[in-house]
Amino acid sequence: MGLSLLNIISKSNFRILRPKLLSNYVGTNKELVCTRYMSNYLRKIPITTSKKHNIAVHKEIAAVNKLILRYTHSQKNENDGKNTDDPRNAMMIKIMMAIFTVYLTVYVISMLFPNASNPEDMRYVSWNEFVHLMLAKGEVEEIIARPDLDIVTVRLHEGAIIKGRKIDQRTYHMNIADLERFEQKLREAETKLGIKPGHGVPVVYDRSLNAPELILFLFFAGLLALAYFGRSKGGSKSPISLDMFSQIKRAKYTLIDPLIGQGKGVRFKDVAGLKEAKQEVMEFVDYLKRPDHYKNLGAKVPKGALLLGPPGCGKTMLAKAVATESNVPFLSMNGSEFIEMIGGLGAARVRDLFKEGRKRSPCIIYIDEIDAIGRKRSSRGPEGGGDEGEQTLNQLLVEMDGIGSKEGVLMLASTNRADILDKALLRPGRFDRHILIDLPTLEERKEIFEQHLKIKLDKEPKHYSQKMAHLTPGFSGADIANVCNEAALHAARNSQKVVLEADLDYAVERVVGGTEKRSHAISPDEKKIVAYHEAGHALIGWLLPTTDALLKVTIVPRTNAALGFAQYTPTERYLLSKQALFEKMCLGLGGRVAESIVFNSITTGAQNDLDKVTKIANAQVRQYGMNDKVGLVSFSEDKNSLRPYSNKLAALMETEVSRLVSDAYFKTEKLLKENYNKLELIAEELLKKESLNYEEMVKLIGPPPNGEKRAVEMYEFNSPVDTKNTDSSKN
């Protein structure tokens, strides 16, 4: 232990207690006892300097002692994990529990139905059959009543004759609803049949089995067996131990501790983009490194921060980077890991997580996807909110309130659904900072591509990052990583030595539209319809001024059930005008209108387009206040909330939505009829080549009438890129 501890202490930046001095004491003193007090060998250090130097030495002694405690605590947890997480022990427990369950099930069934193996012995008769065919003929020898099963067993005389035939089966059963009145009912039937009192059929009550009591007895017997066999003579844990129940309550966190070299740390340089978010979380790093500086100014260190934003944008990586840069332990858990079927386990795991955090302070506790336990509490819950999820949330609120400013425990959490979190969780004092981590901008996407384009390329990543950033608006960091990986996989499938430009283009196309599915055979008539449909989209986008630049149009079927698609290169726009939204609707209707003009019929291929068009029209009328008749109002799309408007206004909005879609349809129809020859040229070329790009469209029908659209959106891989005038900031 001495050498391992010495390595850890040597890595620490102690200015007074030099590693050589520590090495002498660790090497010579074999009685290294790590308790919550200072180790004896450290107290032997002679201190003959000034008072200021004396105080500094004591501070570093306390720091070394805390490091020793953390090391021994980590070693203890590792040893406990080895004892409790041995695969052989876990397998033995599962086998024993399975055997016990199967045995108990078979035993109970066999006791409830003792003759289930012989179908002949399980024959049931009705009351009338019993009275008229058995009792009246004098063939009944005795009756066995079983009150615990509500069943009576009728035993016949040997050689009994039923319905004029001699039968071999002597045992029959009857289901009786009320066994307390059974014997009285039997005697009344005997009296009617002329059987004298005292000469009737004897009734025997069998109470040898009580199923509920038997199951309860076996359950407690099993618990006692676990408790008994769990105590071994040597004091070590047996494979079957009651300690397995206490292990369930422990928080199953992931630990990253840079001081003892446990886990892989992530630094800010590993997180591309997120400049504003990095700057904000850097303050937390400074809080953990220099808490006295803020306390001297009277400032209170924030207790926690909530990272908000879409999935795949780097929230978890940023939280890990904060812990690594702060050089403190990082305890990470997923929100769903707190919730179990057994009541109270979630709250117990929250307590255990914060208990471990206080032991390792200063540290960072991180809960990913906190919306799993932080949902809004309902007043209609059982007994005012006594379910498992609300108990876990209440315990989390209590623990966050219990974090003192002197404890050095910082709480971080992330979610992509902040709207469903409980207000008590979001208030200052629990999560003091709400940090938004949004989808990356153009410049941030360029940095992320340079980070992930460390695959084997034929050129430097900078040659590709600018264009790839323009081709992927709206992509998250995870999407960009997926694109780079898909490009490398495509190059490997083709047995290439390096990743080429075509592989990157293929990867973007695969993520956006899916993989080509050339084995999906369609008839020539359907292929012609698809060609005119996609030609309609491409031509409308070419003619209108505010639509995005066309990158590629294809009629090759895709694995996502699309028979063709047109790919565009959207610009970085955060505000859309009424005209831009209207022309987006025209672009979506281009395929349906082209089908109607050319074939004088329509198909189901425009279903996805109509869905998008309807959403845009609804948003203009209901949310953006862009309709003159409805007015400057905005209504939420929450289906669970009550509708804050009358039926008359609802009918008016539906009418205006329909009118808006109709206007877009007629505008699209007019454009396509005026440019019908261009529509035919594009469709015929698609039928020949199956795919067209921007340059081929220019050669075919000429440049866009409203000016070049690709001046700022597209860059060639082999051309120099000037990024000084590129505007990627948000409005």
Verbal overview:
By secondary structure, the chain is α/β, with parallel strands linked by helices. The protein is built from 25 helices and 15 strands. The strands form four sheets. A six-stranded mixed beta sheet has the order 7-9-10-11-8-12, with helices on both faces. A hairpin with a 4-residue loop joins β1 (140-146) and β2 (151-156). It is extended.
Write out key terms for the chains shown.
alpha/beta, disordered C terminus, membrane, hydrolase, six-stranded mixed beta sheet, 15 strands, extended, four-stranded mixed beta sheet, about 725 residues
Summarize the structure.
Its cofactor is Zn(2+). The protein is an alpha/beta fold and 731 residues long.
Q: What summary fits the major beta sheet?
A: 6 strands, mixed
Question: Helical element count?
Answer: 25
Major sheet strand order? 7-9-10-11-8-12
Radius of gyration: 39 Å
Class derived from helix and strand content = alpha/beta
Residue share in helix: 40-55%
Estimate what percentage of residues fall within beta strands: 5-15%
Q: What is the number of strand segments?
A: 15
Cα-to-Cα separation, first versus last residue: 58 Å
- Ranges with pLDDT <50 over ≥5 residues? 1-49, 81-85, 116-120, 231-240, 380-385, 711-731
Give average pLDDT, whole number: 75
From the spread of the alpha carbons, the general shape counts as extended
Per-chain topology:
Blueprint lengths: L1 H10 L7 H10 L11 H4 L7 H34 L2 H26 L14 H9 L4 E7 L4 E6 L4 E2 L2 E2 L4 E5 L6 H11 L10 E3 L5 H19 L13 H6 L5 E3 L18 H15 L1 H6 L7 E5 L6 H12 L3 E5 L10 H15 L3 E6 L19 H14 L7 E7 L7 H4 L6 E4 L5 H11 L9 H10 L5 H17 L7 H13 L10 H20 L5 E6 L10 E5 L8 H22 L7 H16 L24 H28 L1 H14 L1 E3 H8 L30
Parallel strand pairs: 1-6, 8-11, 8-12, 9-10, 10-11
Antiparallel strand pairs: 1-2, 2-5, 3-4, 7-9, 13-14, 13-15
Cofactor: Zn(2+)
Keywords: ATP-binding, Hydrolase, Membrane, Metal-binding, Metalloprotease, Nucleotide-binding, Protease, Transit peptide, Transmembrane, Transmembrane helix, Zinc
Pfam families: AAA, AAA_lid_3, Peptidase_M41
